[in-house]
């Protein structure tokens, strides 16, 4: 009599991330959900002059928009580290540039020369619009390198609940690109290799220790996610001014994603651990210690979701990635809707229309700008007919890296 071989329960099994994260994964859907979350969060301050969604519920620790930004950095950390390990430095930086910059530049142009003039006409301020000290040309000059040094244009939107700023979301792009440069540097000196990956773990542990040292000074560890540390910021070429208050937690979250990739042979993907992570995330968001406990738990939860996403949902974002476009266009769209008093119809109508218009803008951005730009990814390499055969590369290491952007994200 033979004993029937029992199949392990998929949910209770704990395979390493290297085995659990295959060709079909949830990165596309997760990025889109995070981008849409920013719209829901920003609807409160942009449309109604109140705190971002989730701020009161977390007792001032965080908000939905900030959580979404953290999620982008985790996913980006994993995917960008994979790309940095696979490509030479020049090719890596080129791929990152064509993913971020063309759509960003087109968004700047449309904001300065289409949206702003229409806003000026609506507000009756076309006289002096072009000659204003902070006019559209100055807006382009100040912001083209990702470092945002001018938020407003010609003094417009001054009566909105969130006055002046045309696109407050794009601040996080400079922080993400900073992380790209860090990955490029670490890859160039060989730190991302298997034998030296421990150095990255030491760096991330140092950032975590710094966050803990700040949190212990707050009652119930309820430190805000971007606590005022008193440390001076940095001003870097192209990236502009970077606040260490925001840089440290964001690089920490990016680092957690990087560690997931570097230690994917050891990181176990288990449903029980995911449930515990969810409980810690929700509990700390309400009662305290969110930055030092809830954020790492959130990072694990996102990675688990990416690996365990139901198969039908893994198709989202594989051919049409709207997440970046939604992110960079939602803020100006919401500001214009407020100017047109759409917010008087309530949160549901205002937010629903914001989502609809942002998705439409993202579709145009993808098909007219982002997708054509991605065709330049292999510019300068040998043509398929003359190139030497290469080993097959998993889809997750190509499509996701090409389309993935952490948005690129938003403070909240």
TrEMBL record:
GO terms of biological process kind: polysaccharide biosynthetic process
Pfam families, alphabetized: Acyl_transf_3
Keywords: Acyltransferase, Membrane, Transferase, Transmembrane, Transmembrane helix
Gene Ontology molecular functions: acyltransferase activity, transferring groups other than amino-acyl groups
A cellular component annotation (GO) from this entry: membrane
Segments passing through the bilayer: 29-48, 60-80, 100-120, 170-191, 198-216, 236-260, 267-283, 289-310, 322-341, 347-369
Domain (Acyltransferase): residue spans on this chain: 27-362
Annotated stretches, region: Disordered: 382-412
Compositionally skewed regions (Low complexity) per UniProt: 382-400
UniProt name for this protein: Acyltransferase
Native species: Kitasatospora sp. CMC57
């Amino acid at each position: 009599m033979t004993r029937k071989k029992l199949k392990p329960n998929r949910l209770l099994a704990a395979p390493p991330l290297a085995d659990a994260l295959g060709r079909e994964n949830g990165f596309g859907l997760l990025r889109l959900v995070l981008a849409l979350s920013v719209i829901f969060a920003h609807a409160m301050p942009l449309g109604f002059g109140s705190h971002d969604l989730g701020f009161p519920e977390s007792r001032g620790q965080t908000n939905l928009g900030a959580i979404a930004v953290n999620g982008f950095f985790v996913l980006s950390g994993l995917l960008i580290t994979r790309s940095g390990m696979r490509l030479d430095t020049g090719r890596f930086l080129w791929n990152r540039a064509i993913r971020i910059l063309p759509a960003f530049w087109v968004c700047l142009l449309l904001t300065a020369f289409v949206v702003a003039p229409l806003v000026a006409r609506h507000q009756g301020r076309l006289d002096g619009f072009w000659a204003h000290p902070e006019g559209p040309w100055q807006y382009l000059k100040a912001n083209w390198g990702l470092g945002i040094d001018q938020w407003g244009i010609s003094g417009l939107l001054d009566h909105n609940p969130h006055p002046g700023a045309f696109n407050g979301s794009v601040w996080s792009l400079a922080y993400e690109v900073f992380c790209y440069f860090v990955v490029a540097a670490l890859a160039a000196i060989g730190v991302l290799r298997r034998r030296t990956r421990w150095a990255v773990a030491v760096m991330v542990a140092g950032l975590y220790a710094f966050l803990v040292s700040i949190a212990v000074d707050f009652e119930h560890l309820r430190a805000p996610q971007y606590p005022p540390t008193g440390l001076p910021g940095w001003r870097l070429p192209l990236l502009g001014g970077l606040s260490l208050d925001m840089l440290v937690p964001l690089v920490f979250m990016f680092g957690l994603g990087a560690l997931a990739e570097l230690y994917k042979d050891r990181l176990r993907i288990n449903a029980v651990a995911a449930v515990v992570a969810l409980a810690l995330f929700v509990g700390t968001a309400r009662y305290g210690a969110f930055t030092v406990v809830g954020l790492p738990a959130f990072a694990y939860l996102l990675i688990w979701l990416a690996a365990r996403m139901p198969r039908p949902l893994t198709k989202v974002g594989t051919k049409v990635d709207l997440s970046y476009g939604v992110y960079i266009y939602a803020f100006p769209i919401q500001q214009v809707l407020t100017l047109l008093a759409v917010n008087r119809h309530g949160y549901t109508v205002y937010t629903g229309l914001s989502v609809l218009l942002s998705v439409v803008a993202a579709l145009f951005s993808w098909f007219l700008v982002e997708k054509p730009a991605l065709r330049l990814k292999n510019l300068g390499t040998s043509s398929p007919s003359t190139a030497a055969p290469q080993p097959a590369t998993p889809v997750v290491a190509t499509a996701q890296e090409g389309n993935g952007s952490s948005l690129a994200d938003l403070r909240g």
